[in-house]
Amino acid sequence: KQEVTQIPAALSVPEGENLVLNCSFTDSAIYNLQWFRQDPGKGLTSLLLIQSSQREQTSGRLNASLDKSSGRSTLYIAASQPGDSATYLCAVKVNTGFQKLVFGTGTRLLVSP
Amino acid sequence: NAGVTQTPKFQVLKTGQSMTLQCAQDMNHNSMYWYRQDPGMGLRLIYYSASEGTTDKGEVPNGYNVSRLNKREFSLRLESAAPSQTSVYFCASSAGLSANEQFFGPGTRLTVL
Q1: Cβ burial B93-107 (10 Å sphere, 16+ → b, else e)
Q2: CB A32 to CB B100 under 8 A?
Q3: Do the beta carbons of residue A56 and residue A50 sit within 8 Å?
Q4: Pairing outcome for strands B87-94 and B31-38
Q5: Beta-bridge partner residues of B5
Q6: Minimum Cα–Cα distance from A1: chain B residue
Q7: B40/A89 touch (CB, cutoff 8 Å), yes or no
Q8: Residue of B nearest to A43 (CA)
Q9: Where are the alpha helices (H) located in B1-113, listed in sequence order?
Q10: DSSP type of residue A97
């Protein structure tokens, strides 16, 4: 059974720092991996999607990497800003008779001015 | 475009009461999903609809029913609410089951007393 773990559960940094969020998964048989952002009381916004054949994706200050063989992904945020404060979720797409997303429990990020 | 909308935003029920959560999307997507989010457990798939006229069980379907009313709308019904169904419910849609990206609604926070 696929399990997705995100460490740390919470992270607090001062503005301007570069930071790394970690995601690990137990089964390398995935279609893709997505990073989402969730603001309090809001839905999920997709940030980056990495196909299983890809190693990384970049969008602005965000860079996500994928090492499928070791079951790891990282989300790198450069020059963090208070507006980056949110919960970040990773999810892998798998097939268990139907295609579905398996989510981690998230990392709550607080960036202080 | 409103994207994915959900009503209501908040709801408090007593044990045994019934209610329907509504979801609509205006992106002409074929597939729609219902998830629940509980602390420490990540999002879990309740039911999904691959296309208009079809619905299938996800990981945690017990205690729920769904209706794909038309291409735009996908409702989730709790026939006899239980405290274990206290959760935040998210609706999502995608172009198709194999599509990479799912788009999420803002969620419904449900408390069952």
Answers
A1: bbeebeeeebbbbbb
A2: yes
A3: yes
A4: antiparallel
A5: B24
A6: B59
A7: no
A8: B106
A9: none
A10: S
Tell me how far apart the alpha carbons of residues B43 and B64 are, in angstroms, rounded to a whole number. 16
Cα–Cα distance, B10 to B112 (Å, whole number): 11
Q: Please tell me what DSSP assigns to residue B16.
A: T
Q: Which residue of A has its CA nearest to B37?
A: A105
Question: d(Cα A104, Cα B93) in Å, to the nearest integer?
Answer: 20
β-strand pairing of A44-51 with A32-38: antiparallel
A92 touches chain B (CB under 8 A): no
Q: Are strands B4-7 and B10-13 parallel, antiparallel or unpaired?
A: unpaired
Contact A44 B90 (CB under 8 A): yes
Q: Which two tokens stand for residue B5?
A: 């909308």
- pLDDT single digits (tens) B52-76: 989 999 989 999 999 998 999 999 9
Q: Tokens for A12?
A: 């607090």
Q: Would you say A111 and A59 are in contact if contact means Cβ atoms under 8 Å apart?
A: no
State both tokens at B97: 């089951």
SS3 at position B41: coil
- Determine the straight-line distance between the first and last CA of chain A, rounded to whole angstroms: 41
Token pair listed for A14:
């001062």
Residues A108 and A89: beta-carbon distance below 8 Å:
no
User: How does pLDDT run across B17-54, given as a tens digit for each residue?
Assistant: 999 999 999 999 999 999 999 988 889 999 999 999 89
